[in-house]
Structures are given as structure tokens and as C-alpha cells.
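look at this:
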Amino acid sequence: MQVSVRADYALRAAIQLATVPEGRVTAVQLTHAQDIPDALLAAILTQLRRSNIARSQRGPDGGFWLARPASEISLAEVIRAVDGQLLGEPGSPPDNMTYPGPAEPLRRVWIALRAFGPTVLETITLEDIVSGELWLPSRPAPGGLKRPV
């Protein structure tokens, strides 16, 4: 499955939002924390708001936060918010990619995506990434047992 740069940045932004459950994060803070280009981040945040993944408030006390608990937002939902339907195309980000801060576990997700396919993205939530407890199917067949990565 091919994961776009836009989807990769959206996941990183959503994961960063999940690390501040009671607070708000500004776009500038997201840009610096995850090294996401300003213009692209603005478009991504708009799409995440429209998909009921993020909320925002303007003004001096403004910022962005998750619209729902991180445990209720799958990685697949974030990708669909910015790219539409998940497509089963060959390829994925290289195994040697590195991610800053709380997005670091994404590397393991891309490796698992290669092994198990797109169902992995439906089962992993933002909370799983932030907590570092990734549970994945033990085999590609639906309903497989789960095991930590």
C-alpha cells in the first residue's frame, strides 16, 4: 500500500495532538515538533477538522486538539481524512525513515503494513502510537490473534 507524504504528515500531526490531551497545540508548535511545512500543515489541519478528528479555536488561547479520544481514532481514519479511500498499491515508506518525538513508532507501523496489509491501519489507534503499545494481527487473515510489535 502506498502512503502519501500528505498522509504521513497528517499522521504525525494527529499523533502530536494526541500527546496533549488536556491542552491545545498551535500550528507553529506542530510545525516545529514534527518538521511539517507550514502551508501543507494548514491544509491537513483543515481536513482533520472537517473529518471530526481535530478541533480548533482562534485567538490568543487558541490552538488545535483532538475532537475525540485518541483511542477512538484509527490511523486509517486519519489517512482517509486527507487522501480519501485507502488504496492497495504496492510500496510504503522505507524502513529506514525516522520520526521525531511521539511519532517515532510509525516506522514499525510501516514495517507491519508491508507484512499484514492495510488492516493494520484500521486496528492501530493514535493512543496505541502515543503509548507505544502497538498490537497487530498475528497473521494476515482477518480475525487473527493479536501480538505486540
Q: What stands out?
A: The chain has a mean pLDDT of 81. The chain has one domain: 5-148. Residues 5-148 form a domain with the Arc Repressor Mutant, subunit A fold (CATH 1.10.10.10).
